[in-house]
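Incident log, support desk, overnight shift.

02:14 A customer reports that sequence design results differ from what the structure should imply. Their input is reproduced verbatim below. On-call engineer (initials T.W.) acknowledged and began investigating.
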């Protein structure tokens, strides 16, 4: 194995004129090797690279087209959602306004009906009080009249005798006769 290694090492020292061998000068061989490799790659790999790039381009264009379609659908859905939101907000505002006005109307109606009911109750109470007062006054008058009558009858019965009774009747007849003469 040492002989094979030695032969490769010794090849590097051979002069390059007219013979085939390895050129170990990196600066001289690198651009030539690279240009050969690139030329072969371009010649043979041009179709493969072109196909790969075309496929990649088509995938990118399809992705862009799909994205544009999805974006258009999303924009359309967004506009529909915004329109529905505006409609719902308007309906909510309308319900809110109607609700507030309905609440105010019901509050006003309740206040009016309550004040009317209170007024009717007050009037009923006042009528009941007046009725009870009148009834009490009438009862007191009846009792006072009955007591005064009983007292007068008692006084008359105890004080009147026949003679006094006849004199009172004569005086009353005389007064009635005088009144008759005045009116004639």
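02:41 Re-run completed on a clean worker. Output:
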């Amino acid at each position: 194995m040492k002989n094979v290694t030695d032969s490769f090492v010794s090849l590097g020292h051979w002069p390059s004129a007219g013979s085939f061998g390895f050129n170990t000068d990196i600066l001289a061989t690198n651009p030539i090797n690279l240009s050969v490799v690139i030329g072969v790659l371009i010649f043979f790999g041009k179709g493969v690279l072109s196909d790969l790039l075309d496929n990649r381009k088509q995938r990118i264009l399809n992705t862009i087209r799909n994205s544009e379609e999805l974006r258009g659908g999303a924009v359309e859905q967004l506009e529909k959602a915004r329109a529905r939101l505006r409609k719902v907000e308007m309906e909510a505002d309308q319900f809110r306004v109607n609700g507030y006005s309905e609440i105010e109307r019901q509050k006003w109606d309740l206040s009016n009906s309550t004040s009317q009911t209170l007024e009717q109750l007050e009037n009923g109470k006042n009528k009941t009080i007046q009725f009870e007062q009148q009834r009490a006054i009438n009862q007191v008058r009846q009792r006072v009249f009955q007591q005064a009558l009983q007292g007068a009858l008692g006084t008359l019965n105890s004080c009147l005798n026949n003679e006094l009774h006849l004199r009172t009747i004569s005086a009353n007849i005389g007064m009635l006769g005088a009144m008759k003469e005045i009116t004639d």
